[in-house]
Amino acid sequence: MSTLRPATPDDMSAIADLWHAGWHDAHPGHVPDELTASRTVGEFHARVPGRVGDTTVAEVDGAVAGFTMVVGDEVEQVYVAAGHRGSGVAEVLLDHAVRRVAAAGHDEAWLAVVEGNARARRFYERRGWRDEGALPYEVVSGGRTLVSPCRRYVFSIRQE
Ligand SMILES: CC(C)(COP(=O)(O)OP(=O)(O)OC[C@H]1O[C@@H](n2cnc3c(N)ncnc32)[C@H](O)[C@@H]1OP(=O)(O)O)[C@@H](O)C(=O)NCCC(=O)NCCS
Q1: 92: which of 86, 134, 145, 157 lies 20 to 30 Å off by Cα?
Q2: Which among 67, 114, 119, 135 is the best mutation to test ligand 1's pocket, defined by most ligand atoms within 8 Å of the CB?
Q3: Which pTM was predicted?
C-alpha cells in the first residue's frame, strides 16, 4: 500500500537516486549518447532541489517508492523504483498527477515519452493516454541543446 504526499527537502536525495536509476533503466540507446553520458547521479542531485515544489512522492514502508513532477498541464516526470514496478504504485501516482493538472483548471494533461521506451508507453496506453504523435523534445545538457525523439501523449480530463 503506498501513501502519496508532497515531497519535502528531506526526500531530495532519495528522489535523485531513484530518478537517476530509473532514467538509466529506460533511456540509454533511445536518446543521444551525449545526453546519456551527461545524466550522471550528480546531475540529478543538482536538479532536484529546484523541483521539490513540483514533486509528489509515493511512500511504501517509509521509503520513497516513486514520484511525479507536474508543471501546469504537463506530467513532466513519472518514475517508480525498480522494486515497485508492476505493483500499482505507478497507477496511483499517474492518476494523482492527472488530478493535479485538473485542479489547475486544464482540460487535458500531456507528457513526453521517449519513442523507444516501450514499457512506459505500454503503461500510459493502458491508463487511457493517447499517442498524439512525434515530439522532438529539446533538453539542455552541458550547455548544448539535444533533441530526444519523443511521442506526445495526452489524457482528456473533462471527458470523464
Ligand atoms: C514507466 C513506469 C512508471 C511504469 O510503471 P510500471 O509499474 O512499470 O508499469 P507496469 O508494470 O504496469 O508496466 C506497464 C506494461 O509494460 C509491460 N512491460 C514490462 N516490461 C516491459 C518491457 N521491457 N517492454 C515493454 N513492455 C513492458 C508490462 O507487462 C505492462 O504491460 P501490461 O499492461 O500488459 O501488464 C515504470 O516502469 C518506470 O518507472 N520506468 C522507468 C522510468 C521511466 O521510464 N519513466 C517514464 C518516463 S516517460
Answers
A1: 134
A2: 119
A3: 0.95
Q: How far, rounded to the nearest angstrom, does the alpha carbon of residue 121 sit from its chain's CA centroid? A: 12
Fold of 3-156: Aminopeptidase (3.40.630)
Q: Cβ of 145: how many Cβ atoms within 10 Å?
A: 8
DSSP output for 33-81: HHHHHH--HHHHHHHGGGGGGGEEEEEETTEEEEEEEEETTEEEEEEE-
pLDDT tens for 17-68 read 999 999 999 999 999 999 999 999 999 999 999 999 999 999 999 999 999 9
Alpha carbon nearest to ligand 1 atom 12, residue = 86
